[in-house]
Write a structure and sequence with these properties.
Number of strands of chain B: 0
CATH class of the domain at 6-84 and 153-239 in chain A: Alpha Beta
Order of helices and strands of chain B: HHHHHHHHHHHHH
Shape of chain B: elongated
Structural class of chain B: mainly alpha
Largest interface: A-B, 45 and 43 residues
Radius of gyration of chain A: 18 Å
Largest sheet of chain B: none
Oligomer: heterodimer
Number of helices of chain A: 9
Strand order of the largest sheet of chain A: 6-7-8-3-9-10
Distance between the termini of chain B: 35 Å
Helix content of chain B: over 70%
Order of helices and strands of chain A: EEEHEEHEHHHEHEHEEHH
Chain lengths: 249, 276
């Protein structure tokens, strides 16, 4: 059996007495799109931050591409990338300058060519010479995605990739991510509370609540297990504290 | 997929290309706002003008200044060099805070010490932009050139830059630990050291009990050393070596505070949250 791209085991993150992540464990297989799904404060962003090495866990282990992220994060970081609406690009720099700097940080060989290709793909060519701070939410999301794809990542971590986007732009971003995964065989892990997005993109969903994974499975499995018609109803059922049928986990 | 060359470069413990990328980023920021560039020039030039006229007045009214006209002007410029080297480092650091960008930077292969090197390089550039034009302007205005100090000037410059960096590192560490509420440290901390550095007066002016504190600062050796050059024409090697030794201690302390604060920020999850 091939090694999973992500292997998380007994992961705990405490801030004083607050437990943000409470002993979770999961794997994500190569080439799949998985989601951490849960309400605010469920521990999704904390888990992503630990995977990226931005946050040190209290206990537990995290392996990405078979490497221990806590010990060898610099073996992992060149192969992954990240996008979040909560982390900005410097506002006064133009989009081109921002992308160029990140391309240099990743050691991208043909920077201008790579930026040009991504700008065409993500339809941001007219924005390249505009300051990043003067973009709309939708434009910022596409630019952030371009930054996240600069190093052709084998693993893409996305925190709420379509938050604050209009339905049309959100749909376009989802389509692009599907196409990217299909074309490159990359693995995607996203944190979201957008049910439609998760249903469309993901083959594996981990439902999080209060720092724990309370259920997991494919969107269809979860819908069947809870006897609901869509993932949103499953989410609400879990959020309101009703457990799944016996033996769900 | 990630190319093998890109992966190898990312795994390299040090990459000048990553340092250059960060330096380029700060240069883009500087270029994007001419008022900020102007501000770099503004204060040193203003200080030089005020103290230049003051020196001209005192030359005919004070035997102290009459003996060496540049004693005040030189002190102003060297103090500004210290302040600008510290501020040059902390302002570039604050740019990352203001733009909430640390979370993006540290998911790249960028190492904290590479970032630090780019901050130091930017400090040199900011000092050059700020202090050199003021020093050059003093030549036609007051017929005073700080460059006449010759090689000792280079020694003073090294000591003051290193001290400014040490303070800057500690201040950045403080801001990382306490968040943007501590931002004002960047502009205030150094002025607490001004009275003890004996910029315009000899250490003997201080009360006895304060003198050991003054001699614990590398800057005090620079200003005393400058007066030794201007009044006696001698370069105090002992002052220089002591100042360098103190600088090394301060740099070690500053870097330790910075890296501990960085690791602590990773433990607290502050790298993603830090910003305005």
């Amino acid at each position: 059996m091939p090694e999973p791209v992500i292997l998380v085991d007994h992961l705990v993150k405490r801030y004083g007495k607050t437990v943000a992540v409470d002993g979770i464990g999961f794997t994500v297989e190569r080439g799949s799109t998985a989601a951490l799904l849960g309400g605010n404060g469920a521990g999704k962003t904390t888990t992503l931050s630990i995977l990226l090495g931005l946050l040190l866990p209290t206990t537990g282990t995290v392996h990405v591409f078979g490497e221990d992220v806590l010990r060898h994060r610099y073996r992992v970081l060149p192969r992954i990338n990240f996008s979040s609406p909560y982390v900005d690009l410097p506002h006064r720099l133009t989009v081109r300058q921002n992308l160029s700097i990140y391309a240099r940080l990743y050691g991208v060989q043909r920077r201008a060519e790579t930026i040009g290709r991504l700008a065409r793909d993500l339809q941001i060519e007219p924005l390249l010479d505009r300051p990043a701070g003067k973009l709309s939410s939708g434009q910022k999301t596409r630019v952030a995605l371009a930054k996240a794809l600069l190093n052709d990542p084998e693993l893409l971590l996305l925190d709420e990739p379509t938050a604050s986007l209009d339905p049309d732009t959100g749909d376009w971003v989802r389509g692009y991510l599907e196409e990217y995964r299909a074309r490159t065989g990359a693995t995607i892990l996203l944190a979201s509370h957008n049910m439609a997005e998760v249903e469309r993109l993901c083959s594996e969903v981990m439902m999080m609540k209060e720092g724990r994974i309370v259920d997991r499975g494919s969107p269809d499995e979860l819908i069947d297990r809870y006897g609901r018609t869509n993932l949103e109803e499953v989410f609400l059922q879990i959020a309101r504290g009703v457990r799944a049928l016996e033996g769900a986990l | 997929m990630t190319g093998p060359a890109m992966r190898r470069l990312g795994e390299k413990a040090f990459s000048p290309a990553r340092v250059w990328a960060m330096l380029l980023r700060y240069l883009y920021i500087l270029k994007s706002s001419w008022p900020r560039t102007l501000e770099l020039l503004y204060w040193p030039t203003l200080q030089m003008l005020i103290w230049g006229f003051m020196s001209q007045f005192l030359r005919s009214n004070s035997s102290y200044v009459a003996q060496a006209f540049g004693v005040l002007l030189g002190a102003v410029m060297l103090w500004d060099l210290l302040f600008r080297s510290q501020l040059g480092l902390t302002i570039s650091f604050l740019e990352e805070m203001w733009s909430r960008n640390l979370g993006q930077l540290f998911v790249t292969p960028l190492r904290p010490y590479e970032w630090l090197l780019s901050l130091l390089a930017m400090s040199v550039i900011r000092v050059t932009i700020g202090v050199v034009p003021a020093a050059l302007l003093a030549i036609p205005l007051y017929h005073y050139s700080i460059f006449d100090l010759g090689l000792p000037l280079l020694a003073f410059l090294v000591v003051l830059m290193a001290m400014g960096w040490a303070l800057g590192l500690a201040i950045c560490g403080g801001i990382m630990r306490h968040g943007m509420g501590a931002e004002s440290l960047a502009w205030t901390v150094i002025f607490a050291l001004a009275p003890l550095s004996c910029i315009y007066y000899p250490v003997t002016t201080l009360p006895y009990w304060l003198r050991p504190l003054a001699w614990a600062l590398p800057s005090t050796y620079v200003f005393e050393g400058m007066r030794a050059v201007l009044f006696g024409g001698i370069f105090r090697t002992d002052y220089f070596l002591t100042a360098i030794a103190l600088d090394l201690v301060l740099l070690a302390c500053g870097a330790t505070i910075f890296f501990i604060a960085f690791r602590d920020a990773r433990r607290r999850g502050a790298l993603l949250q830090m910003g305005e």
